[in-house]
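A protein record pairs a chain with a discrete description of its three-dimensional fold. The following entry can be read in just this way.
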Amino acid sequence: MSQRLEKEFSSDSEEKWENCANSSEAAAVYCSGDHISSLPIVDTKLLHSVSGNQSTDQDEAIKNPELKTVSLRQPLTEKSEEEEIYYSSKPGDIVAKKYQVIRELGQGTFSTVYLAQHLETESYAALKISKSSRDFLESALKEIKILMKLSGDKHIIQLIEDLGIIGKNTKHIGFASELLGPDLESFFTAKQEFHINNVRKICKQLLSALDYMHTEFGLIHGDLKPDNIMLSVSSDCLKKMADFAPENFVKELAIDVSDPRCHIHEKLGDFGLSMERPVDLERCTLQVCTFRAPEAFLTTIVDTPIDLWSVGCIAFQLVTGFTLFNCDGSSSYHGWSHLSEMCNILGPLRMAPFQSHLREIWRARFVDGVFVCNPNDKDIPSNMQYEVLDVVQ
């Protein structure tokens, strides 16, 4: 787990951050004005080489994945932090003096991801580069540390190296990871139906990855959704990905998940929200609403079962092609409506499992230990009128 900014002290040196920070040092620092705060960073000697070979020290990294802390000067203006600026790069740009950007793969709340090629080895990688603010820098560092820990599992995306501080006018933190094929959401967008055999493979592999996280390291993923579950593809397919836009990957790579013989090797990614269990929700928010467990609404403390709830929701979507719950967060009463929909579809929601950490704002919604649904809720949409157990079976 990433540490918070540890200490601040006066800086009397005019040394520029460019002279101190580079990808080989994996420098990750936050500075403001005349004060500097040090952040934990990754020693890249413990990581994979870009060519994909294991470094001689990787086993030690897995056994002792502690991050070093250094203090380097990196001026960040208040304006850049407030604006939370995305890193901007275009095809042909060189990142960290070693990767050439081919195209943007996507942009999320925390970062931008690029498809890039290493200048020396010509191997492909995905570069994930954070937005420029204290919270996003910390999130990127935390994700790097978590990826170091989880590098021993074949169903979790593999970290290649930490790229350290990137950018001039605004400062960002980036890392390179293995390049993977389309995420599961891409297949829904392409209107592909998953054969039940492939649904079983994906769910089994996803549960294996989660078991590794939960039992070996006590980590909760906290953001499971189809966008964060990707399929491995061959090296020939990786070359093709350099020629096509992300929205065309499924079609151009000729991946047919409706074919029971389709090769499925799932990899779990995006650990920006991952935390050590249990998690205090008074300090953070986990899970996209569509895949959020009831306790993530109702309680202040959550644990690994929230990930398993998300797996169930994802499995339902893989089988049916649509989400189990229709999430509309536009209303201030959405939490009540969402929980009411859970009750309408799955049956009564009882207080007992949530009572020890129940939020006071929800206590009045339970009568005789049973959740009272929102009377303004609409009937269950026709596409939701399934016997859920029949779908699972």
The chain has two domains: 8-178, 184-392. The radius of gyration is 22 Å. The domain at 184-392 is CATH 1.10.510.10 (Transferase(Phosphotransferase); domain 1). Residues 1-82, 381-389 have pLDDT under 50 and may be disordered.
